[in-house]
Every structure is written in structure tokens, then in C-alpha cells.
Specification:
CATH superfamily: Vaccinia Virus protein VP39
Mean pLDDT: 90
Distance between the termini: 27 Å
Oligomer: single chain
CATH topology: Rossmann fold
Largest sheet: 7 strands, mixed
Number of strands: 9
Low-confidence stretches: none
Number of helices: 4
Helix content: 25-40%
Order of helices and strands: EHEEEHHEEEHEE
Strand content: 25-35%
Radius of gyration: 16 Å
Strand order of the largest sheet: 1-8-9-5-4-2-3
Number of domains: 1
Shape: globular
CATH architecture: 3-Layer(aba) Sandwich
Length: about 200
């Protein structure tokens, strides 16, 4: 099987199944943002340690304060909220915030600070030569491009992580331009999964 850097994978689970063929270090895998476990429906690691900040979906453990020793996992998955959605986006905005346990109106600065904090904690518990998988995205908010992927890479490098690979998950049915808005940027029809090593 040839693993592509950019593909229209049907789901995140399909993407993860391919990423794992290259960047799963074996043994227990830590998922810091388990949610409903959607990443693991196509492929399962040898052992899965799952946390989720939402006590309804998981154990209430925050990726800002993981209850693990330094360098204790060889593979870590981190899928934080990575797009700022405003409260005026109707159902889409509400669904997004409920999914990630966020309040409407979270700013791009707040989103990136949240990612940076979690990324720093993931780097702490990542074992030497292990792999950290991080989902992120460039996006448009309030008519401005937010370089979320770039910002996440910068933080990872500041955590002394090595930038190993990048996967572009292309959406085949992207959301339409909101009615009544003039398009000033290309629609972001992809998200990014970054792979780092320690």
C-alpha cells in the first residue's frame, strides 16, 4: 500500500489507519482527546489509553494536565479544537462548541493558546523516538486567514520536537460559502495531521 500525503479519506479513521502504518511505535497509544472514539473505528492500537475533557464522553482528564509520567508513551494522538467558530454561525457553531466543550465566540488567540498548552503537555509525556499525531487546520474567521497549521508547527519546534510528516485530509463535500457573504479567501476544504517525533 502506498500512503499519500494528501487524500480524500472518507473519515478521520481511514486517515489514521494509514498514518499508523508509518508512525505507530507499538505498545500503548495515548489518545488525549478521545471523544466518541471515531479515530479508532478502522484500526486499533495494541493498547489504547483514552482521555477526554468532557466527563460525559470520557474520564474528564484534560490534555492540559495529563496524569502520566514524563516520556511514558511512544505514540500520542492529539485532536484539539483547532478552528475558532463564532456564535453567529447558527447550528454549525453550536454543534462545534458542544462537541469540544467550548463556549461560543472563542477567539483564534484562545484556540491557539489551548493547542499550545496541550501540545506542550503531550511533548512532556512522549517517549524518546516516539510519535505525536496532531490534528490542526488553517481557517478563515472574521474575513481573515488564521495560519493554525504554521502556528502549531512553531510551537512543536519550540517544544524540541522534530517535524516528521504532514497529511492533508481533503474534504470532498466542503461546506458552501455562507449566504450573503462575499468570498475573499479560498475555501479551506482540508485539515492537516502533523507528525512529530522526540
Amino acid at each position: 500500500m502506498t500512503v499519500l500525503a494528501a487524500n480524500a479519506w472518507k473519515t478521520n479513521a481511514d486517515l489514521i489507519a494509514e498514518v499508523a502504518t508509518l508512525y505507530y511505535a507499538g505498545g500503548p497509544l495515548l489518545d488525549t482527546t478521545y471523544g466518541l472514539g471515531g479515530w479508532w473505528s478502522k484500526w486499533q492500537p495494541e493498547g489504547l489509553v483514552a482521555h477526554d475533557i468532557d466527563p460525559i464522553k470520557g474520564d474528564g482528564v484534560s490534555y492540559h494536565n495529563l496524569p502520566h509520567d514524563d516520556s511514558s508513551f511512544s505514540t500520542i494522538a492529539f485532536d484539539p479544537p483547532y478552528v475558532a467558530r463564532s456564535s453567529n454561525e447558527g447550528t454549525l457553531g453550536r454543534d462545534y462548541h458542544e462537541r469540544y466543550g467550548r463556549k461560543a465566540g472563542t477567539s483564534p488567540v484562545d484556540i491557539q493558546q489551548d493547542i499550545d498548552s496541550g501540545l506542550t503537555e503531550c511533548a512532556r509525556v512522549l517517549a524518546r523516538k516516539g510519535f505525536l499525531w496532531v490534528k490542526c487546520q488553517d481557517y478563515i474567521t472574521s474575513g481573515k486567514l488564521v495560519p493554525g497549521t504554521h502556528n502549531t508547527i512553531v510551537t512543536a519546534l519550540e517544544c524540541n520536537l522534530k517535524y516528521v510528516d504532514r497529511f492533508e485530509h481533503i474534504a470532498t463535500n466542503p461546506r458552501p460559502q455562507p449566504p450573503g457573504r462575499r468570498q475573499v479567501h479560498a475555501r479551506r476544504n482540508l485539515s492537516t495531521l502533523l507528525v512529530f517525533s522526540k
